[in-house]
């Protein structure tokens, strides 16, 4: 029996064959997604509760561009983004569950209305030729249209060039075996926003606009390749008489995309056996990376992202903050190193940020679901910002940004403990360490094998059964778990770009103060100069820079706390009771 995890529900869903008698209103079963009755057919349901989804509702896209709202992409949410039900802006019906939502305009479409547009359909509404009183961006080709004669779809309220309105729905090209279809939803076909490579001219084409594609092998083609230079090479295919056939041959398409956080094109790599990326970290979430992934085409760049991080929403509403958070490729904290307001860890990855409140969440905390299941507790946990600080069961620190149990009123864990890996490696032990959640009566106190201080048996700790070895989570993690070393940044302290390194030789001297560089260090690859990246030395140098005077008072305070902390993940009392 097929089992899957779905973003809309905290429990695994099982594929079943539903047999429901919908003639009996007492036995009427509604889909938890589209809210329509479920008749006989395949469904995904939860064995632990009454959650059930049509198989088609499970398979719908998380992000779409829809002709009913062409200005912005729509994001699929599992529940209404408002306190009560939402009103579909197409049919004006009231719904509580699945919704395609625009964060910018608060535009909402229910699943049924959103599915009225098939990505294979091209655009089958009639265009009306009218005089446009102002310039516009063509919804098909993405180019600017001038005042004058243009074509308008009165159903979808979109403007296109007159020439684009006459594009055939299906075509053939001599250099490709299969028919090609017109689609206005390339991103839906290829599964991501960004640029892909045209199979004819090898140029970049945006998935945000229309294009031709092969439904058999996903061969993409520019509109301009049909309209301009290669027009003589094409033959218009009569859609009704075209014959679609299968072939054993498939083309290896080179998929590339442009990304808002990087100046170069990124290339898709989906070979799981590719060892080139072993041991590397994603530049967004700073987690180990495995295919499918996107890497920079420039050989010496090293920028790399999980495919899931490429598809992160640019804006999000999070339970921890009242305002929308915007995804930035780099935090505006001088060199991009910031402290997450959720887990309190330092990071130099992507950040979900509110500029109004200067509130920051790293990708891991910003992507947490509102309800999750955690191995440390029997009930689902709810992500919540509380009015009164709660004590975390894992580390005994107090926080308002917690995951709470609605059944057990006294259970809460903070984001730092909620995102701890279940297993970890430590340089002082040759075996993997397991995270111990549960307190046993009479459990003896262990001594941390890293800091040599006592471990409180009532708090979570990492443990090796083979060696009878224990360690504090913050000692195993250190302060570098969400920091990617390397790269380069132009600091005011030196004329050349400097790279961030975790540690250097014992005798390495700081060029600014002459003391040994212990901990994070800035290294110049050209002249082999070294500078402190933390502590008083770095802070004194930073206060001389122009960047310092551009920061607000609260930003200076926060940045000083990050720079001067000798062990940023540890409070002065470490863990009360240890």
TrEMBL record:
Q: What is the lineage of its organism?
A: Eukaryota, Viridiplantae, Streptophyta, Embryophyta, Tracheophyta
In terms of InterPro entries, this protein maps to: C1-like_sf (IPR046349), DC1 (IPR004146), Vacuole_Formation_Reg (IPR053192), Znf_PHD (IPR001965), Znf_RING/FYVE/PHD (IPR013083)
According to UniProt, the name of this protein is Zinc finger PHD-type domain-containing protein
- Which Gene Ontology MF annotations are present? zinc ion binding
Keywords assigned by UniProt, alphabetized = Metal-binding, Repeat, Zinc, Zinc-finger
Q: Which parts of the sequence belong to the Zinc finger PHD-type domain? A: 30-92, 137-189, 197-261, 281-344, 447-514
| A Pfam family this chain is assigned to | C1_2
Is-annotated flag, keyword Zinc-finger? Answer: yes
